Amino acid sequence: MADGISSFWGPVTSTTECCEKNYASSSYIAEFYNTISNIPTILLALIGLVNALRQRFEKRFSVLHISNMILPIGSMLYHATLQHEQQQSDETPMIWEMLLYMYILYSPDWHYRTTMPTFLFLYGGTFAILHSVLRFDIGFKVQYVILCCICIPRMYKYYIYTDDKDAKRIAKLYVATLVLGSLCWLCDRFLCKEISHWSINPQGHALWHAFMGFNSYFANTFLMFCRAQQRGWAPKVVHFMGILPYVKIKKPKSQ
């Protein structure tokens, strides 16, 4: 929320602001909670990347985890500065990440190996250029929702074809964090006037970041399990420190 306080970054130039008082904690960080709430996403993506590299999963999963780290870094830059240029570093990677999910979800059944990645690459590049020039607002949000809706049915197909109870539980956690995160985002976006009168701001957008960090981790873990099943790698879900699930595989010696 704009409040006229002078800051290191100058006037707000982003097209979107959240329901958090600007520069309440520091003149260097516009939205403090919305900035630091990206840290769990980075840590979870790093854990996923280490697991993918250690067990030699396909490179697509390493790229996906790296994408999950780039996105929150861009989001931190945006929420710390509320500048239009940094807003692009938040929103454009969101579209790129969804295109990566589309590739991972649909590529196993795609018969023409080069057409899908070529199309998705051109789509992502074109969006980045147009978004930087035209400054999409509603158009960006609609596009992001459409890409999510394209991915969800495929996730459901993987869910119904998976018999492992632990993997299904991860898929349910994916849905739960998506729903809770979306509710937090909607409340922060559309109930800001009411929330601004409360004695404590629940920081709905920061909670959205936290929930979506776990959402991405659960989605990646479930997809890694399903892909390992497709490759015959005998996957099983184990838990780090008895809490955080990850996939452990056993590849045939020939691989």
From TrEMBL:
<keyword id="KW-0812">Transmembrane</keyword>
<feature type="transmembrane region" description="Helical">
    <location>
        <begin position="206"/>
        <end position="226"/>
    </location>
</feature>
<feature type="transmembrane region" description="Helical">
    <location>
        <begin position="32"/>
        <end position="50"/>
    </location>
</feature>
<protein>
    <recommendedName>
        <fullName>Alkaline ceramidase 3-like</fullName>
    </recommendedName>
</protein>
<dbReference type="InterPro" id="IPR044219">
    <property type="entry name" value="ACER_plant"/>
</dbReference>
<comment type="similarity">
    <text>Belongs to the alkaline ceramidase family.</text>
</comment>
<feature type="transmembrane region" description="Helical">
    <location>
        <begin position="62"/>
        <end position="82"/>
    </location>
</feature>
<keyword id="KW-0378">Hydrolase</keyword>
<dbReference type="InterPro" id="IPR008901">
    <property type="entry name" value="ACER"/>
</dbReference>
<feature type="transmembrane region" description="Helical">
    <location>
        <begin position="119"/>
        <end position="136"/>
    </location>
</feature>
<feature type="transmembrane region" description="Helical">
    <location>
        <begin position="173"/>
        <end position="191"/>
    </location>
</feature>
<keyword id="KW-0472">Membrane</keyword>
<keyword id="KW-1133">Transmembrane helix</keyword>
<dbReference type="Pfam" id="PF05875">
    <property type="entry name" value="Ceramidase"/>
</dbReference>
